[in-house]
């Protein structure tokens, strides 16, 4: 099966600082890839590179190939602004971490969703745009969409605002959805609801998803495969079942050991993350079929 998204030796620099170092990943149609790592590991920079939202300060190398439904395989790093704008929001969309800063506070939420639709489907008459807005709001289980479409972001709870962001992202039926820590700012109950919503939307619309998080427990609920990053490098990648049952890299084992469970001995300290950079000099090697890690 050809990959929907293929990142090949991507490097991103900001001046002398290298945020992502020769990263290679792939994502198939309908698959969810969890990208995990601590703050500063390069997860969000990778997502922004895919969406071409890094800005002129970033220097990028490598390639990011996306299989467009209309244009076929394209290298996103080589696309001009206008073709990229047509892809972004139509065939690929992104959900950001903090919905209150991502939404326009002085525009009704229905109009914000409508704007996302009109941008990519200008031929749609007003009545069909409104119908699509209400359908998107219903798809994310926002109550009474016909009335709430007139409300402003501050009139919604944090979880509802995240649902609005998801409605905007899926309004044009993209094939790829990038979720950048979409549950970090939410309490545990709402977090569970958002994860269940994303799972149902994936099933309903056949979405492929790049799910970014620092929380392995969250990633374990949604991902088919998991990739672990640190200091801009890919350290390990495997299926969810393999990574959680047989982690090969010391950093991955430390991340898993730092998660308390009902069986955790409260008299013992949780695992801490080693500071050693030695493994970063090691090449990636195949531990078993479909399981690679940067180990000797």
Describe the structure.
With 296 residues, the protein is an alpha/beta fold. It folds into 2 domains: 5-91 and 176-293, Rossmann fold (3-Layer(aba) Sandwich); 102-173, no CATH class. It has 11 helices and 12 strands. It has an 8-stranded mixed beta sheet, sandwiched between helices. A 4-stranded antiparallel beta sheet has the order 2-1-4-5, with helices on one face. Helix 4 (109-120) packs across helix 5 and helix 4 runs parallel beside helix 7 (158-170). It starts with a strand and ends with a strand. The model has no long low-confidence stretch (mean pLDDT 89).
Strand content: 25-35%
Return Rg in Å.
20 Å
Shape: globular
Secondary structure: number of strands: 12
CATH topology of the largest domain: Rossmann fold
CATH class of the largest domain: Alpha Beta
> Roughly what percent helix?
25-40%
Kindly report the oligomeric state of this protein: single chain
For the terminal residues, how far apart are their CA atoms?
31 Å
What's the CATH superfamily of the largest domain, by name?
A: P-loop containing nucleotide triphosphate hydrolases
Enumerate how many helices there are, as a single number.
11
Tell me the strand order in the biggest sheet. Answer: 6-7-8-3-9-10-12-11
Count of structural domains: 2
Q: Spans with pLDDT under 50 lasting ≥5 residues?
A: none
CATH architecture of the largest domain: 3-Layer(aba) Sandwich
Largest sheet: 8 strands, mixed
Write the layout of secondary structure elements.
Elements: E1 5-14, E2 17-27, E3 32-36, H1 43-51, E4 58-68, E5 72-75, H2 81-87, E6 92-95, H3 99-102, H4 109-120, H5 126-139, H6 145-148, H7 158-170, E7 176-180, H8 188-205, E8 208-213, H9 216-222, E9 225-230, E10 233-239, H10 240-245, H11 250-257, E11 285-288, E12 291-293
Parallel strand pairs: 3-8, 3-9, 6-7, 7-8
Antiparallel strand pairs: 1-2, 1-4, 4-5, 9-10, 10-12, 11-12
